[in-house]
Design a protein that fits this description.
Radius of gyration: 21 Å
Largest sheet: 5 strands, antiparallel
Strand order of the largest sheet: 3-4-5-6-7
Strand content: 5-15%
Shape: globular
Oligomer: single chain
Distance between the termini: 53 Å
Helix content: 40-55%
Amino acid sequence: MLKWNSDVWGKLTGPYSSADNVPVLLQQLMQQYSQEVFDELFQEYLFHQNTIYTTTYAAMPFLAQIACSTSDAEVRKELFVNCGIIEASRNERDGELSPGFWAELVEDVGSSVCTELYREYLEAIGKLKALTKEVFSYTAHHSIDEMEKRFILVADAAYRGSYILANMLMTFINCDEYVAVCPACEEDVFIWPHEDNPAEILQAYERDPVFHTGQEHYVIVPVTSFADEEIRTLVERAGSKHWLGICII
C-alpha cells in the first residue's frame, strides 16, 4: 500500500481533483470509522457516474483492510457493498492495465508503480470477496430494504466476476421500462410494467408501446428452473425466483 507521505498521491486523479486529501480521509477512517468521512471519500474522490479513477485503485487496499479488521458488522457490510459497486464499474478485467486509462500516471510515476497499485487493488478485492458469507449471514438476520438488498447482490456479483449481472442490477429500478434483446430471435423486446400492478406484473411488447398503442402484449412469467449458472446463483442469493428469472410466453 502507498505510504501516507508518498508523493504518488498528488499524481493520482479522481472525478474532480487530485488525491492530495485522500490519505488524511483514509487515516481518519482507519482510526475511527465515520459514515460522513467515507461518503466524502467515496463521492469526491473514488466514484462518480459509474466511473472509477487511479485514486480508487490506491484507496481500495485501505478500505479492504478496514472491512476485514473491524468488529462492527454494519461497517463491514457498508464497505463490502460500496467496494463492490466500485468493482462492478472496473473496466480492466483482463488482468492487465489499460494503456489509455493509466497512460498519464505511467508517464508521471513509472509502470512499476502502476502495476503495483493494480496488483494491490486485485488483492483487496479478493479479501473483500472472502467476506461474502459473513456479510450475507449478517444481513439475513437484520431488516434491510429492497434498495440495499439489490446493492448487496451487485457487490456479490461483481466479486464473483459476473459483471453483466452486477451492472444490470445497478441500473434496475422497480416499475421502470426496459428494452431487452430476445435470446431466441435477437429482436428488441419492450418490457413495460402493468399499469394496474406495476410492482408485480411485467408485460412484453414486440414494438415500443409508446408509439404503437393497442398492440397485443405478452405476460412475463417467472421460470421454475434456471439453466444459466449465473442467473441461478443470483436467484439463490436473492432468496426468490421472482427477482430476475423470467420467461416470455
